[in-house]
Amino acid sequence: MTETKSNLSRRLRPLLWMAASFLLFYVLFFDPLGVHPVDRWLQSALGYHTMEQMAATEQAAAPADGREVLFYRNPMDPTITSPVPAKDEMGMDYVPVYADEAERAVGEGTTVSIDPAVIQNMNVRTAPVERRSLTHEIRTVGYLEYDQERMVTVTTKYSGWVEKVYVNYIGEPVRKGDGLFEVYSPELVQTEQELLSAIEYVESVRDAPEGARRRAEALVDSARSRLNFWDISPAQIAQLEETGELFRTLTVTAPASGLVMKRMAGLEGMAVTPGMEAYHIADISSLWLSVEVFEDQVAWIRPGMEAAVAFAYFPGESVRGTVRFIEPEFSEETRTLAVKIAVPNDSGRLRKGMFATVIFEPIAVADALVVPSEAVLQTGRRSVVIVAREGGRFEPHEVVLGHASEGYYQVLDGLSGGERVVTSAQFLLDSESRLREAIQKMLTAASEPMAPDMTETSGAGESMGHEMHDMTEPMESESTGTMDHSDHGDQPMSHQE
Q1: What is the tens place of the pLDDT at every residue in 251-289?
Q2: Which among 105, 150, 411, 463 would be 20 to 30 A from 391, CA to CA?
Q3: Of 356, 2, 437, 406, which Cα lies nearest the Cα of 145?
Q4: According to the model, what pLDDT value does residue 62 have?
């Protein structure tokens, strides 16, 4: 008995599996409960739609004015289309493309025509394609130092002793002609005595023969010249001749106005010799700004070029400096070259050691054809601008760009002077232009003769709808075995029969 039940169970098991499989097949394909599991999977995975769904959606989405809808496009990417209404990954509805729009797109190419009211609502702004010179801006920093062309050293050309000092501090300002210190020099006193004696001798030989008078005057000129060679000023010599009084000490004056950079320590009472550096004075009416530029920037800088100099100590103010000197050697550590810029300092506000921001603006391209930088759409491989035409028409142009500066791009090819380009909302116009280009490609593909096997299984309009469903992946649809609508509809009918 047990053996009989076991044999019966083995015989019934295949029948039960067959019944369960048939029931599952019936539920999935004939769908008595109306859940459409297979159709939904086909819609999401392959973009498949049943005849009833296409008819219902097309009827629901049919416009009130009776315009014919060719297909629906992705709102973010016009190259992605669907024959029926759909939603993209973000839940946005596909945009319908009407037959009249397609015809107009084919007639106009990639040119976009927009109503003037819509142009105003889109805030479309344009700018002219113009000619202007573009600069190559170089920005760097530097610090102020004394002008090496305006530094003087105070010394004596005779021996003596310093008896009194008037300027005692480093950094003390002096003016040209101000007394620095007094020097007693026996040589100076002797020369003064010789000058006075020569003058008296000239007076004594006034009635003498011409030759004697000339020799006496030559002695006077010789004494004067010796005092001049010792840097005795003409005013001091004139005072000596007028008063006839010897001055025991001579006051050494500042040869230029400026600041005392260096002063010999313990100068008072010191014996001085010719060539000894007693003071260093720097004229601060002009300072040098030392900046460093990199190797690729040196070619743009030359002596005599102007630069804009701004100091953080004086916000909102800037001065113009001139390149005076470029050092001949690069720094091995920083690979930079030092440039000296002369900066005027008539007010005396600038001080040695101040930091400044320097901007060079050499002319890179003169009289270049330029467009505003915001008018250029760059995709990485190409650059596009939208040209505004008359009558609210806009046309994309691919351009070749050159130098960029001051918010402008040089246009080497693709535009001509006198045109106007769009500087705002050009992304919307470019998207519309791409849509028109996609429509042209799809209509061209739809007009090509179809293969015989495709015409037998589906209508012409239905095949075109499947071709337009995803232009970007035509081969993928074939490889995944996209089911034709008529094939799917015939299976359940034959089974019922």
Answers
A1: 888 988 889 988 988 888 899 888 888 999 999 889 999
A2: 411
A3: 356
A4: 53
Dist CA 277 CA 260 (whole Å): 12
Q: How far is CA 261 from CA 146, 173, 373, in A?
A: 9, 10, 51
Tell me the CATH number of domain 138-147+283-361, given options 2.60.40.10, 1.10.390.10, 2.40.30.170, 3.40.50.2300: 2.40.30.170
Q: Is the pLDDT of residue 7 over 80?
A: no
Task: Give the chain's radius of gyration (CA, Å).
Answer: 49
Distance between CA 466 and CA 482 in Å, rounded? 9
What is the pLDDT averaged over residues 330-344?
92
Give the three-state DSSP class for 224: helix
Question: Confidence band (pLDDT; 50, 70, 90) for 23?
Answer: confident
Domain ranges of the chain: 66-115+435-496, 138-147+283-361, 156-276, 366-419
Strand partners of residue 288: 145, 342
DSSP 8-state assignment for residue 424: S
**Can you tell me the distance from the alpha carbon of 372 to that of 424, in angstroms, rounded to the nearest whole number?**
11
pTM: 0.52
Compute the Cα dihedral for 208, 214, 216, 220 and give only its sign. positive
Integer Cα distance of 166 and 171 in angstroms: 14
pLDDT over 70, % of the chain? 70
Query: Please, are residues 363 and 380 in contact by the beta-carbon 8 Å criterion?
Result: no
- Which of 470, 442, 466, 441 shows the shortest CA–CA distance to 454? 466
Q: How far is residue 24 CA from its own chain's centroid?
A: 67
Identify the burial level of 471 via C-beta atoms within 10 angstroms of its C-beta, where 0-12 means exposed, 13-18 middle and 19 or more buried: middle
Whether 279 and 151 have beta carbons less than 8 Å apart is answered as no
DSSP 480: T
With cut-offs at 50, 70 and 90, classify the pLDDT of residue 25: low
Which position has the higher pLDDT, 30 or 56?
Answer: 30
437 vs 110: CA distance, rounded Å: 6
Q: Please give the Cα distance from 465 to 484 (Å, whole number).
A: 11
CATH class of the domain defined by 366-419: mainly beta
